[in-house]
Design goal:
Protein name: FAD-dependent oxidoreductase
Keywords: FAD, Flavoprotein
Structural class: alpha+beta
Largest sheet: 8 strands, mixed
Radius of gyration: 24 Å
Domain FAD-binding: 3-353
Pfam family, one: Rng_hyd_C
Number of strands: 24
Shape: globular
Cofactor: FAD
């Protein structure tokens, strides 16, 4: 068998990469060693930036309608148990009541992985490009200057397979077979704690506990924060995460029902344990995102605490960066510096996001020991109030992380041409749109329902503001055509967009990041070669 791109791993990152390539007209073969059924969804939070990608691929509406109730409030509660004492609540609206941010045509969404994966698979099927082979284990690979030869096993038939690909991408998780085969090490902190994830079903949980809707309940006991309960489907299914040590989580000794009962604070509520998943919390980033024709994305190159919901969303950022680069190499207009820039651009983002996630985890477990916390005394009531307000203040940094989600950029990328302007501050909780090269190209409405972001994607985009800019744009078109680089020119009349972009001409990459901006195009040939990795 042969394919332009082979992708190992059919999780959200692998499926999204296949869908991005299909949207670009490129076939990919996704290889998954399991049967493709998600029994224990881990990812659930879809960031605004990821929703913008889903908008590009035409699946944003399907994700919004996947099943999570629009009227379920996404508040945060700090409590001793769901039936116990409330220490504090941080109120946040339901998705339906949440306004669009001024800097995006999309807003965040909750979509657990067992709903998201089928949306991605359906879109890939509808595209007519790409295939998914489940129960196919990749055993090894070799690469030369032109191809990658993949050795695999069809587990259904116990038969060997040989697959020839132009490029191979490992999206196969923290224990990546592909990363191991490349000899690339992970760097950072390999152990923050051990956790046990317990998926359980409990119809009418909130009503039975006398609680209002919340996205997450942080559970605080005499020993400090010991776990959390997170909403999955907004109805019956919840996930309890218990923090501890490896010894504490001996699978044979772990009593999931007892821990769920502690979280509920009562033994009078019926529930069913659906599945149990032990895992290790870590802050690790790969030393490189690939070698030669073999690349890596998602958890294969970065593992981070889920506190903040940046794991899958960082992986989708990898997809946005890598998809167009593979397109350029397969279609022949990408230069030799293009794929090496993938590591240069994405690795600093993973380091940044992983550090933020660890910071969030530390705020979650920051309460001091308080042996009398559960008592019905004035002293305990005062302690609960103080600890609740302390945690509410500390964790707001996480729930309002717009700068983190939206503001990552490629300031030092060899594929972007600096314009000498100073960078805006990289603040985790505040996002300021900028069209400085390396940054995400700003959103501005061009007409009802149509954003500047809707112009970007399949190739490079040149935005021209005014008659003079349109005349200059012709030089870019000539130079791009000579090199076979796809380039679309759009004349923009919007004053809001002109103010947001800050220059008569702005060249935007296929991933929606600004590559160059300026007033004239005398240097168009050099700029085109830089942005496609030919210099």
């Amino acid at each position: 068998m042969s394919t332009p791109v082979a992708i190992v791993g059919a999780g959200p990152v692998g499926l999204s990469l296949a869908l991005d390539l299909a949207w670009r007209g490129i076939d990919a073969m996704v290889l998954e060693k399991e049967d493709g059924h998600v029994t224990h969804p881990r990812a659930g939070f879809v960031s605004v930036r990821t929703m913008e990608l889903f908008r590009r691929w035409g699946i944003a509406q399907a994700v919004r309608e996947s099943g999570f109730p629009g009227d379920f409030a996404l508040s945060i509660e700090f409590c001793t148990s769901l039936a116990g004492h409330t220490l504090a609540r941080d109120e946040y609206p339901a998705l339906a009541a949440m306004p669009l941010p001024e800097w995006s045509p999309e807003k965040k969404q909750r979509c657990p992985q067992h709903w998201l994966d089928p949306v991605l698979k359906r879109a890939l099927w509808d595209s007519g490009r790409g295939t998914i082979r489940v129960e196919t284990r990749v055993d090894g690979f070799e690469q030369d200057a032109e191809h990658v030869l993949i050795r695999a096993t069809d587990l259904r038939r116990n038969a060997p397979l040989a697959i020839r690909a132009d490029y191979l991408v490992g999206c196969d998780g923290a224990g990546s077979t592909i990363r191991t085969g490349l000899g690339i090490e992970m760097e950072g902190r390999g152990h923050l704690n051990y956790s046990m994830s317990v998926l359980f079903s409990c119809p009418g949980l909130l009503e039975q506990c006398g609680k209002q809707a919340a996205e997450r309940f942080l559970l605080i006991g005499p020993e400090g924060t010991w776990g959390n309960v997170t909403v999955i489907d907004g109805r019956d299914v919840w996930r309890l995460t218990v923090y501890g040590t490896a010894a504490k989580f001996d699978m044979e000794a772990f009593d999931a029902r007892a821990w769920v009962q502690r979280a509920l604070g009562t033994d009078r509520i019926a529930f069913e344990v659906v599945s149990i998943l032990p895992w290790k919390r870590a802050e690790l980033v790969a030393g490189s995102y690939g070698r030669g024709r073999v690349l890596l994305a998602g958890d294969a190159v970065h593992t981070m605490s889920p506190t903040g919901g940046m794991g899958m969303n960082t992986g989708l950022g990898d997809v946005a960066d890598l998809g167009w680069k593979l397109q350029a190499m397969i279609e022949g207009w990408g230069g030799p510096a293009l794929l090496p820039a993938y590591t240069q651009e994405r690795q600093p983002v993973a380091v940044r996001n992983a550090a933020y996630s660890t910071h969030n985890y530390k705020t979650w477990v920051s309460p001091p020991r308080c042996e009398y916390l559960l008592e019905d005394t004035a002293q305990a009531e005062a302690a609960r109030r103080e600890i609740g307000e302390q945690m509410k203040r500390a964790t707001q940094y996480e729930w309002q992380s717009w700068g983190l989600q939206m503001g990552y950029r490629y300031d030092e990328s060899p594929l972007c041409v600096a314009d000498g302007t100073p960078p805006v501050p990289d603040e985790y909780s505040r996002y300021e749109q900028t069209a400085r090269p390396g940054a995400r190209a700003p959103h501005a409405w061009l007409e009802p329902g149509r954003s500047t972001l809707d112009l970007f994607g399949r190739g490079f985009t040149l935005l021209a503001f005014g008659d003079g800019a349109m005349a200059e744009a012709a030089r870019f078109v000539r130079e791009a055509d000579r090199r076979g680089m796809p380039l679309a020119v759009h004349r923009i009349e919007s004053g809001q967009a002109a103010r947001a972009y800050g220059a008569p001409l702005v060249l935007v990459r296929p991933d929606g990041h600004v590559a160059w901006r300026g007033a004239e195009a005398r240097d168009a040939a050099r700029i085109v070669d830089i942005v496609r990795g030919a210099r």
